[in-house]
Write a structure and sequence with these properties.
The protein has 44 residues and is mostly beta strands. It has one domain. 0% of the residues lie in helices and 55% in strands. The protein has no helices and four strands. It comes from Halorubrum tebenquichense DSM 14210.
């Protein structure tokens, strides 16, 4: 699965994840150093 969003500094952030149906991903912005935590949960 690909997670993609825009950081508050306007930098585009994307990360690929594979594996479990529920997974926590930590992504750091390469531009400003902000760290985001994203939780992915399969609904069906």
């Amino acid at each position: 699965m690909k997670v993609q969003f825009e950081c508050s500094c306007s930098e585009e952030i994307s990360e690929f994840t594979r594996g479990e149906t529920s997974r926590g991903v930590h992504v750091e912005c390469g531009n400003c150093g902000a760290v985001y935590a994203v939780t992915i949960t399969e609904l069906e």
